C-alpha cells in the first residue's frame, strides 16, 4: 500500500539534500537542510521559480513584516539585476483563518470584509516600501477545489487519515522526512493538541467545522476549512509543480510551517525534495526586546513607521544588515542609515558638478581605474557570498570616501585639471547601479534633466549667480545678503544651491 521509502522515519536521514542540476549562479547560499553553505544552482536561469509565504490578512502589517519583505525584495533584485536571472515570483494570501474569523467576530462583520480590508492595506504597505507585487498572487478561498484535491490524493495514497471528528491529519509516520529536517527541534516537545491525532508530529490538513456560525467549505470529509500548511503546498505546487528553486519566508516559518510543507509535498509528488533552497530572513525586534508580537502589544505598524522614517532609510537599514541575521530596530540604527544616504547624495551631487565644470579637480585616472576594477570584483564577490549586502555597503563607503578626498581637495580648485573625467563617471555609474540594485533610487541627477521645472530653476540660479557676481565685484554687502537670503529660502523649499567662486550649482 505504501511506497517503500516512506515506510518509516528510520529509513531516511533528514539532512539528506540533493544538489540540483542546471545553471550555477556562482552564488553560495546557506542551506538549512545541510546546515552549511552550498552553491545556488537553478534549473533554468530563464525561468527561476520563487515562492514566498504571504500574510494572513487579519490586521495591519508591522515593521517585522516590512523587514522580511524588504530583505526578500533586495535579494530578488540582486538575482535579477546583478546575476541576470529571470525570476518568476509567487505569493499566497491566507484570506480565511482562525485569526481572521476571530477579528470578524470582534468587528461584527463578515470575514471577507476583514480579509479584503487588510489585504488592500498590505499591498499599499508594500508599495510605500517600494516593493513590487509578485508576478502571481494566489488566494486560499479562490483555490479551495485544488486544496481539497491535494488532500484527497494524500489520503488515497495512505499519507493522511480522517479522525472521528471529521478532520483530516497527515500521518507523519509515513513521511520520508523526520521532523527537524529544516531546523533543529531536539529541544521542542511535540504535544498532541487533539486527542484524535495518532502522533504528536501529525498535523491538520482539513479542520472540521466546530461552530455553525463560522465560515466553512464543503468537502468529502464534511464541512470545514483547510489547515495552514496544506494551503501553501497546494498553491505553490499549482503554480510551480513538483520542484521549486527557492521558497522564502521569515525565520519563524521554518518550523513547523515550512517543515510540514516539505513533508506533505514530497509525499504528494512522490519525491524526496520539493524545494531546492529554503531562504529565511532573520527576525526584527525592538531594542531591549527579544520578540515582536501582536499578543505582546509591542508592534509598530508599517504606516506608523513611515510617518517618521523614509522608505529608503528603512531599506538601507535592511541592506546594512545580513538578510539571515536578526535585526534590532532602534533610532541609532536608523540614524546611521540616514547619514549614509546623505553621504551618497552629496557624492553624486559632487560628481555632477565635476561633469558640469563647477568643480575642476585633479583626477588621477590610474588610481581611479584601479579603484573601479577592484570595486567591481569585490562587489560581485560579496553578492556571491550568501548575498553579503553589508560588505557591499562597506565597499561603496570606501569608494565614496576616496572619491570625495580627490574631488574636494583644496589644491584641486582652479588649478591643474585633467582633460577627461570618464573614470569618475564610470565609478559614479557603478555606485548608482549598485544602489539601484538594492531598490534605492539615487538617480536624481539624471532625472532632473527631463523635468519641466529644470529650465526655470536654471534661469533662477543663473540670475542669482549674476547678482552675486556683481556683489562680489563691487563688494556690495546688501546684494550678497539678498543672494544668501534667497539661497536659504530655496533650501527650505527643498532646493540646495552651492556657490563655487563665480559659478553656482543646484540640486534637490
How do the strands and helices of this protein lay out in sequence?
Elements: E1 23-31, E2 36-42, E3 48-52, H1 63-82, E4 87-93, H2 98-107, H3 111-128, E5 136-139, H4 144-156, E6 160-162, E7 168-170, E8 203-208, E9 224-226, H5 228-240, E10 244-250, H6 254-269, E11 275-281, E12 284-286, H7 302-306, H8 311-319, E13 327-329, H9 331-355, H10 365-384, H11 389-408, H12 422-437, H13 444-448, H14 453-474, H15 477-492, E14 496-500, E15 503-507
Describe this structure in words.
By secondary structure, this protein is α/β, with parallel strands linked by helices. The chain has three domains: 23-329, 3-Layer(aba) Sandwich (Rossmann fold); 330-443; 451-508, no CATH class. It is built from 15 helices and 15 strands. It has helices spanning 63-82, 98-107, 111-128, 144-156, 228-240, 254-269, 302-306, 311-319, 331-355, 365-384, 389-408, 422-437, 444-448, 453-474, 477-492, and strands at 23-31, 36-42, 48-52, 87-93, 136-139, 160-162, 168-170, 203-208, 224-226, 244-250, 275-281, 284-286, 327-329, 496-500, 503-507. The strands form five sheets. A five-stranded parallel sheet has the order 5-4-3-10-11, with helices on both faces. Strands 6-7-8-9 form a four-stranded antiparallel sheet. The model is unreliable at 1-14 and 411-417 (pLDDT under 50).
Amino acid at each position: 500500500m505504501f511506497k517503500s521509502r516512506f515506510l518509516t522515519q528510520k529509513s531516511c536521514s533528514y539532512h539528506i539534500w540533493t544538489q540540483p542540476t542546471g545553471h550555477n549562479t556562482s552564488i553560495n547560499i546557506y542551506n538549512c537542510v545541510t546546515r552549511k553553505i552550498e552553491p545556488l544552482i537553478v534549473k533554468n536561469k530563464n525561468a527561476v521559480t520563487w515562492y514566498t509565504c504571504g500574510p494572513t490578512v487579519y490586521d495591519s502589517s508591522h515593521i517585522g513584516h516590512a523587514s522580511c519583505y524588504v530583505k526578500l525584495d533586495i535579494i530578488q533584485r540582486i538575482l535579477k539585476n546583478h546575476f541576470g536571472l529571470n525570476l518568476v515570483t509567487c505569493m499566497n494570501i491566507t484570506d480565511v483563518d482562525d485569526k481572521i474569523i476571530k477579528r470578524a467576530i470582534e468587528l461584527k462583520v463578515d470575514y471577507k470584509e476583514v480579509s479584503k480590508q487588510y489585504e488592500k492595506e498590505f499591498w499599499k504597505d508594500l508599495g510605500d516600501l517600494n516593493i513590487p507585487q509578485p508576478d502571481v498572487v494566489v488566494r486560499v478561498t479562490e483555490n479551495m477545489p485544488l486544496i481539497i484535491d491535494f488532500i484527497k490524493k494524500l489520503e488515497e495514497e495512505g499519507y493522511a487519515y480522517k479522525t472521528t471528528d471529521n478532520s483530516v491529519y497527515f500521518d507523519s509516520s509515513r513521511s520520508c522526512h523526520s521532523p527537524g529536517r529544516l531546523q533543529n527541534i531536539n529541544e521542542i516537545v511535540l504535544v498532541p493538541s487533539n486527542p484524535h491525532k495518532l502522533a504528536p508530529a501529525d498535523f491538520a490538513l482539513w479542520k472540521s467545522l466546530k461552530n455553525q456560525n463560522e465560515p466553512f467549505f464543503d468537502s468529502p470529509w464534511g464541512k470545514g476549512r483547510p489547515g495552514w500548511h496544506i494551503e501553501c503546498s497546494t498553491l505553490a505546487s499549482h503554480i510551480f509543480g513538483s520542484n521549486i528553486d527557492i521558497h522564502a519566508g521569515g525565520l519563524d516559518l521554518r518550523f513547523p510551517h515550512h517543515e510540514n510543507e516539505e513533508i506533505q509535498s514530497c509525499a504528494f509528488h512522490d519525491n524526496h525534495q520539493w524545494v531546492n533552497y529554503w531562504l529565511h530572513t532573520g527576525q526584527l525586534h525592538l531594542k531591549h526586546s527579544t520578540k515582536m508580537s501582536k499578543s505582546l502589544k509591542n508592534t509598530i505598524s508599517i504606516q506608523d513607521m513611515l510617518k517618521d522614517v523614509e522608505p529608503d532609510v528603512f531599506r538601507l537599514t535592511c541592506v546594512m544588515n545580513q538578510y539571515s541575521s536578526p535585526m534590532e530596530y532602534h533610532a541609532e540604527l536608523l540614524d546611521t542609515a540616514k547619514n549614509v544616504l546623505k553621504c551618497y547624495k552629496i557624492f553624486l551631487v559632487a560628481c555632477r558638478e565635476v561633469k558640469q565644470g563647477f568643480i575642476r579637480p585633479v583626477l588621477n585616472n590610474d588610481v581611479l581605474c584601479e579603484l573601479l576594477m577592484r570595486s567591481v570584483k569585490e562587489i560581485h564577490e560579496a553578492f556571491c557570498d550568501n548575498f553579503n549586502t553589508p560588505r557591499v555597503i562597506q565597499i561603496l563607503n570606501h569608494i565614496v570616501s576616496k572619491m570625495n578626498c580627490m574631488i574636494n581637495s583644496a589644491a584641486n580648485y582652479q588649478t591643474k585639471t585633467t582633460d577627461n573625467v570618464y573614470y569618475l563617471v564610470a565609478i559614479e555609474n557603478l555606485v548608482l547601479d549598485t544602489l539601484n540594485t538594492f531598490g534605492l533610487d539615487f538617480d536624481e541627477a539624471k532625472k532632473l534633466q527631463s523635468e519641466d521645472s529644470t529650465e526655470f530653476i536654471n534661469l533662477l540660479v543663473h540670475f542669482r549667480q549674476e547678482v552675486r557676481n556683481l556683489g562680489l565685484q563691487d563688494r556690495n554687502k546688501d546684494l550678497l545678503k539678498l543672494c544668501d537670503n534667497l539661497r536659504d529660502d530655496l533650501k527650505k523649499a527643498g532646493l540646495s544651491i552651492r556657490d563655487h567662486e563665480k559659478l553656482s550649482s543646484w540640486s534637490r
